[in-house]
Design a protein that fits this description.
- It is a single chain.
- This protein is elongated.
- By secondary structure, it is of the alpha+beta class.
- Strand 10 and strand 11 form a beta hairpin.
- The chain has four domains: about 180 residues, Orthogonal Bundle (Helix Hairpins); about 30 residues; about 160 residues, Orthogonal Bundle (Sec63 N-terminal domain-like fold), CATH 1.10.3380.10; about 260 residues, Sandwich (Immunoglobulin-like).
- The chain has 23 helices and eleven strands.
- The strands form three sheets. Strands 4, 6, 7, 8, 10 and 11 form a six-stranded mixed β-sheet that branches. It has a three-stranded antiparallel β-sheet with strand order 3-5-9.
- Keywords: Chaperone, Endoplasmic reticulum, Membrane, Protein transport, Transmembrane, Transmembrane helix, Transport.
- Its main location: endoplasmic reticulum.
- This is J domain-containing protein.
């Protein structure tokens, strides 16, 4: 290693390589991910949007919430473009370095053709040296040194050999490693500044940034909810297992996201001392005199009053309280989702006997019910038709005429166009068009439920303690499918077949495969039995023919037995009949062998069919797992919610509960990607005791009121097969089984239909 040299870059050439590579690593992915992209706008988007006053006001609010959006996009584009310009300049400079170092041609430097004589070389050198000599006015020291080196390469024999062999007249140079930093960094004059910069970056700035990030991250859950808020939810759900809707609103308003000391985004104004008390006087049943902490704190009472005003649609001061209302309402869907998760966790803790009482299904359903109330901005007891634009309390009287009683959006959609226009005759044509747009884009969910026991011989037989899998299929369509106009229905069907037909076909194929897979095994055995039965009858028919031939031969023998010639003939016929018998027996044996072979072949086909169905099931499970690993998007369909100050997507909750015992059986799954079709699997353990049980599969919307659905599933639970006692590792002592039975009797999770009838 004696020929190696380590030195700093005096000329700065190596430093340009470092800058070029570093800048390229930043610009290439940064341009792809950070370049502002304009979303693809539908030319007919304006015609599809609702033009009611609420939607227009919401557009202004959304634009005001992002005042620096255009400026930020322009600044980002400017930085990226400047970065690429610098990158191109660095690449050009580096290419010039490479050209100078790699392309040393003495003939080109002397401006003479290859193969010139020594006199021509000397003549060209003298001519150029008079121009490039440093003592001359037009002199250039660097160019003159290069000219001298080229002259030596062509005139000196040793230099010429080095140039021809190594490309350099000086011969093979020593290997040098240049550090890609300029030399001024290690100079004594700059050492204090360099060390100060290192200390500022690595000892002050970096630890400060990491500490701030860590302090913020440990305060929040995975859904960006304060941990103190989650702890408060747990406390109140344990304290009040059966919670009314009014108390759920109180707990939601007490979230620490609305507390100034826990959230710096909260604005406290001097005018709150006058406006909040005057607002409280307009709100009955607010519960402002509650003494529980933190329900009695001022921030909690203010947030509660703003939520009640939002649900009652009370107008507020747009400069003060209305801005606070927008901030609180925007946070509510995330907080309600956290409340639902907390209630489920408390239920699990109650089953594990860590919590004294189990929260009822009413508590978690009241939490879910609050979300669409906040999104649409009215109470649950109000008419769901108020979710349509331009519909007020005064318009509701037209929906309750003598001939018709329209109470839901689905009933209103099923009317013919003339009847709908007659009901809304007090609206203008543009207002009626807005109503039809919003109504037609609302969700119409095809809700299908299928239950089975996977990995079992009889998937439709439910035994005690078995894992029951309930597959919920959700097919989302627009409400315009229910319109009473035939022309509208045909048009919408054509559009949906073009847009979403592939997804529905895939869904139907999956359902067909699942139904084929769940076909019981005894059906295939019956098919095999039919085939074997036909072949068995063929076996019996052949011996019957042989017996008839034998009886005829016996009759002929008795007739001709009196004559001697007849005796000879009898001997011959006996020999022939014996041969025929042997041939008949051999034929029957061959037929039986063939039938046995065919039966075994049928059994092999049946086993192959079973293997195919099992393989299809396995492939379906793998595909579902891959979908889960890929992740779900949070885009489905935009919700019409003029009073909600942000863009809202349609989300749904799916869960299974027992209405009779008021218990929750499965984790509520939040479906966030129901664009056209979605399939969800819910699993729970079947009851321990045999009997007939009825459970309810529920579908709840977090965006609209009046769109919830429920289906009952009945499970006829049979006794579980006895555990074989041959294996010693499976033996269970009598004391343990007695304790388990007593514990199961004390804490029964489910209630049978027979128990309910007996109690009644």
């Amino acid at each position: 290693m004696s020929g190696q040299k380590f030195q700093y870059d005096e000329s700065g050439g190596t430093f340009f390589y470092f800058l070029l590579s570093f800048l390229a690593l930043l610009l290439v992915p940064g341009t792809y991910y950070l370049w502002p992209r304009c979303p693809k706008q539908d030319p007919d988007q304006l015609a599809k949007e609702c033009q009611c006053d609420g939607c227009k006001k919401k557009k202004v609010i959304l634009h005001a919430n992002k005042p620096w959006k255009e400026t930020k996009a322009f600044f980002t584009k400017f930085l990226i473009i400047v970065g690429w310009i610098i990158l191109l300049l660095l690449a050009y400079k580096v290419s010039q370095f490479d050209y100078e170092m790699a392309n040393f041609d003495p003939y080109e430097i002397l401006s003479i053709p290859p193969g010139s004589s020594q006199s021509e070389i000397k003549k060209a050198y003298r001519k150029l040296s008079l121009i490039l000599h440093p003592d001359k006015e037009t002199g250039n020291e660097k160019a003159f040194m290069k000219l001298t080196k080229a002259y030596q390469a062509l005139t000196d024999d040793e230099a010429r050999k080095n140039w021809e062999k190594y490309g350099n007249p000086d011969g093979p140079g020593a290997m040098s490693f240049g550090i890609a930093l300029p030399s001024w960094i290690v100079e004594k004059e700059n050492s204090v500044w360099v060390l100060g910069l290192y200390a500022l970056v690595f000892m002050v700035a970096l630890p400060t940034v990491v500490g701030m990030w860590w302090y913020k991250s440990i305060r929040y859950t995975g859904d960006q909810v304060l941990l103190t808020t989650t702890e408060m939810y747990y406390f109140f759900f344990v304290k009040t297992p059966s919670m009314s809707l009014k108390r759920v609103i109180m707990i939601l308003a007490a979230s620490f996201e609305f507390f100034k000391k826990r959230n710096a985004e909260i604005v406290e104004r001097h005018s709150d001392g006058e406006e909040v008390p005057s607002l409280i006087k307009q709100l009955p049943n607010l519960g402002e005199k509650n003494k529980e902490v933190p329900l009695c704190h001022l921030y909690s009472i203010k947030a509660r009053a703003l939520l009640h005003a939002h649900l009652s649609r009370i107008p507020l001061n747009p400069e003060t309280l209305d801005k606070d209302r927008q901030y609180i309402v925007k946070k509510c869907p995330y907080l309600i989702q956290e409340m639902v998760a907390c209630v489920h966790q408390v239920i699990l803790l109650a089953y594990a006997r860590r919590v004294p009482r189990v929260p009822t299904i009413t508590t978690i359903e009241n939490c879910m019910k609050l979300c669409p109330m906040v999104v649409q901005g009215f109470w649950e007891f109000k008419n769901p038709l108020l979710q349509l634009p331009h519909i007020t309390e005064d318009n509701l009287k037209y929906f309750h005429a003598k001939k018709r009683q329209i109470k839901s959006l689905q009933q209103f959609a099923q009317l013919k166009g003339e009847e709908r226009r007659l009901i809304l005759r007090n609206l203008s044509d543009s207002q009626y068009e807005d109503v039809i747009k919003v109504l037609g884009n609302m969700p119409y969910i095809d809700f299908k439920v299928r239950s089975e026991v996977i990995d079992d011989e009889n998937p439709t037989v439910y035994t005690a303690g078995a894992i029951v899998t309930v597959t919920v299929s959700l097919t989302r369509k627009d409400m315009k499918h229910l319109f009473g106009d035939d022309s509208v229905n045909e048009q919408t069907m054509i559009e949906d077949n073009k847009a979403g037909g592939e997804a529905v076909e895939e869904a139907s194929e999956e359902q067909n495969q699942s139904t084929k897979a769940t076909k019981p095994a005894w059906l295939k055995q019956k098919k095999g039995q039919k085939k074997s039965h036909k072949k068995g009858t063929n076996k019996k028919i052949a011996p019957a023919k042989n017996t008839q031939a034998q009886s005829q031969t016996v009759a002929n023998n008795t007739q001709h037995s009196n004559t001697p010639n007849a005796r000879k003939k009898d001997d011959k016929t006996e020999k022939e009949s014996s041969k025929e018998k042997l041939s008949d027996v051999s034929d029957s044996e061959a037929e039986s062998d063939r039938s046995d072979d065919e039966d075994s072949h049928d059994k092999k086909d049946a086993s192959l069919d079973d293997d195919d169905t099992e393989w299809e099931k396995f492939q379906q499970r793998i595909s579902k797992r891959e979908r889960v690993l890929e992740g779900r998007s949070n885009l489905s369909h935009e919700v019409h919610c003029p009073l909600f100050p942000d863009v809202k997507q349609e989300y749904w909750w799916v869960y299974i509960c027992d209405r009779k015992s008021q218990t929750l059986l499965t984790t509520p799954i939040h479906v966030t990607s129901l664009a056209q079709f979605e399939e969800i699997q819910l699993r729970f353990t079947a009851p321990r005791w045999p009997g007939l049980y009825t459970f309810t599969v529920c579908l709840r919307s977090d965006s609209y009121l009046g769109f919830d659905q429920a289906q009952d599933i009945k499970l006829d639970v049979k006794e579980a097969p006895e555990i074989p006692t041959e294996h010693p590792q499976w033996d269970i002592s009598d004391e343990e089984t007695a304790e388990d039975v007593d514990a199961a009797d004390e804490h029964s999770e489910f209630t049978t239909d027979e128990d309910i009838s007996d109690n009644e």
